[in-house]
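re the bet — no i am not wrong, look at it urself. input seq straight from the record:
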Amino acid sequence: MARKGSIMSDALKWELAKEMGVDHIVATEGWGGVPSRQCGMLVKKAIERAERSIANSDQTYPQQK
């Protein structure tokens, strides 16, 4: 079953690809050209960013009882 939309924005994907030094591969071969190990690392970095973002938003908006 195909996905209807992407969870990550294209801007975030490109930013992570640049950080990891695989943006040249994406530019020339597309995302399918990126080795699976690097794809896994991209996902890991995206998850880490999301977790940091959630942690920061929790600090900004404390839980109310």
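see?? Helices lie at 10-20, 23-29, 36-60. told u. also The mean pLDDT is 85. so pay up
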